[in-house]
Amino acid sequence: MKKACDVLVVGAGPVGLTLANLLGQQGIDVLVVEREHELVDYPRAVGIDDEALRAMQTAGLVEDVLPHTIPDQKIYMINGAGAILSEVDPTTREFGWPRRNGFVQPLVDRVLLAGLDRFPDTAVHFGTEVVDLTEDAGGVVAALADGGTVRARYVVAAEGGSSPTRKRLGISFEGETRPTDGIVIDVANDPIGTPHAVFGGDPARSYASIALPHGIRRWEFTLFEHEGEADVEDDAFVFGLLAPHVPDPSRLDIIRRRVYRHHARVAGRFRHGRIFLAGDAAHVMPVVGGQGWNSGIRDAFNLGWKLAAVVKGLADDALLDTYETERLGHVTQMVAVSLQMAKEMTDHDPEKAAERDRVAASRTPEEREAQKRQAFKPQPKFDRGVVVHTPLPVSKSLPVRDVPRLAGSIFPQPTATDADGVEMLLDDATGQGWRVLTWNNDPTAFLSAASRAALDRFGARLVQVVPKTQLPWAGKRATAGVTVVGDLGGEASLQAWFDARPVGAVVLRPDHVIAAECLTQELDDVVTRVLEAACAV
User: Fold this and answer.
1) What is the dihedral of CA 467, 471, 476, 481, to 10 degrees?
2) What's the pLDDT score for residue 379?
3) pLDDT at 111
């Protein structure tokens, strides 16, 4: 095992493995250590969203992940009588992928692990436990249980909600833990056979029934205070839970049964010197919202490009402060939403459940539609960090409209074409990493030589987007170093996006967040400000 590395990742779960893949793409020397002797083989998370799939696309692994998903999985929230309280069925593709997908986590974890084989400077060691971390001016020394040590410039602790690293650092983990546990039962050869998921807010006992890929079905039931591990091992007890759901529970092919606890907690800090917390080590939330796994992937996506820039000497260490600045607020929102959903669907007070049902029945069609398209899910939107907020342009060439400024939010990913006219998702057409994207213009006409040189150091791509009809003309006349992309038009196109906003250029970060938006003539100044925000050196 290597004795030194750029980044030591503690924990070979989905967050640690995703981060290692993203760093490996950048040529960073990474070591992942995991206390257990193999990947966890039982399903935990069951939902992967569009943002996470876009991260998998960025990591070059999405085609291997997709076979283990159920796209556009609908969710029904029902009451004890089976009446539908609300449904979640978002079918749009703002970021290029279905917004809700069922998935089998262990199989996706294996994809992430296998992905590391692509990188010669990335290694994984199982059965390796970190027992202490000592930081000095140049890095961190990790003491291992076997007496060995590893020196790293930075350490990312992604070893789960009980994170020994977080505890050793004395970082708080404020929030709440539900007083009762739950039981997860996974079954092969799905006896129901429908593709959707159901969350049952039954005051007698709340539950979830979720279809998963490859013929697996997940049931989750609330356990009461007098119930515990012994009951879970009792077939009669488990069959009793399942009896209202299937004709004959004794004939089920049960893969596993496990007890879990509902937590809603956020770490007080995500950074301590050269050590970072990510995933469940930094935040945990109830499973009802389906965002725990996805929130961890957002952590890895946000932190990965920043660590790579600092390790490569492209940015100052201060860039890493923006990880907590950007992620803490959003994940706190996500925990609150998940907790509220959990309380609504797992409350066993009959009067409160009846009030919930009355509120659901009184929703307007507009409110029901908002629930359906998942409007309750907070989207990342950064006010501070690596983001530059420009004032609303004043120009008689622009209509006066009250439109939200989108710097700090995620840029959409419609289908576009590459320079040869082949249709593909936008990120594939432009290439990954930093991008300066202009509508219909050659971006080099608006950038100084100094700005172009600075962008080139960051590996930024200059992208000229034109209507597909103009593609042959623009492609032949493109400036060296400019990627020309063809826009397909329509409601979800880039033309529609620019039509709706008083801007002609955007600067995109490697995690697809809009670092800045502006009129094309303002581009050079805005790029300078973005590089300053990114602590470029």
Assistant:
1) 70
2) 85
3) 98
DSSP-H helix ranges across 42-151:
50-58, 62-65, 105-115
Query: Rounded to whole angstroms, how far apart are CA atoms 356 and 433?
Result: 45
Question: Do residues 429 and 406 lie in contact, with contact meaning Cβ atoms separated by under 8 Å?
Answer: no
What pLDDT digit, counting tens, does each position of 365-422 carry? Answer: 898 988 888 877 888 899 999 999 999 888 889 888 888 889 999 999 999 999 999 9
**Which residue's entry shows tokens 């200059």?**
462
Task: With H, G, I as helix, E, B as strand and everything else as coil, classify residue 367.
Answer: helix
pLDDT at 287 over 80: no
- Asked if the model's pLDDT at residue 289 lies above 70, the reply is no
Q: What is the DSSP string of 291-327?
A: -HHHHHHHHHHHHHHHHHHHHTTSB-GGGGHHHHHHH
Q: How far apart are CA 76 and CA 97, in angstroms?
A: 21
Residues 6+ apart with CB under 8 A from 41: 106
Residues whose CB is less than 8 angstroms from the CB of residue 499 and which lie 6 or more positions away in sequence, other chains included:
none
Q: What percent of the chain has pLDDT over 70?
A: 100
Provide the pLDDT for residue 308: 98
Identify whether the C-beta of residue 69 lies closer than 8 Å to the C-beta of residue 353. Answer: no
Pairing of the two strands 435-439 and 423-425:
unpaired
- Report residue 135: phi and psi, to 5°: -100, 140
- Element (DSSP H or E) covering residue 49: strand 47-49
Full 3-state SS string of 109-134:
HHHHHHHHHHCCCEEEEECCCEEEEE
Residues 532 and 319 sit within 8 Å (Cβ to Cβ) = no
* Strands of 100-103's sheet in order across: 47-49, 100-103, 69-71
Q: What stretches of 405-477 adopt beta strand conformation (E)? A: 415-417, 423-425, 435-439, 461-467
pLDDT at position 181 is 86
**Which tens digits make up the pLDDT trace of 165-220?**
999 999 999 998 877 788 999 999 999 999 999 999 999 999 999 999 999 999 99
* Amino acid, single-letter form, for residue 533: A
Ramachandran region, residue 408 (left: φ > 0; alpha: ψ -120 to 50; beta: rest)? left
Q: Which amino acid is at 332?
A: T
Write the CB contacts of 33 (distance below 8 Å, at least 6 apart in sequence).
Answer: 8, 9, 10, 11, 12, 124, 125, 128, 129, 130, 142, 144, 150
Helices (H), 193-264: 229-232, 235-242
Q: What is the overall mean pLDDT for the chain?
A: 94
Whether the Cβ atoms of residue 179 and residue 187 lie closer than 8 Å to each other: no
Q: Cβ contacts of residue 218 below 8 Å, gap of 6+? A: 43, 46, 184, 185, 186, 187, 208, 209, 210, 212
Tell me how far the alpha carbon of residue 426 is from its chain's centroid: 19
Contact yes or no for 255/187 (Cβ under 8 A): yes
* Residue 501 identity (one-letter amino acid): R
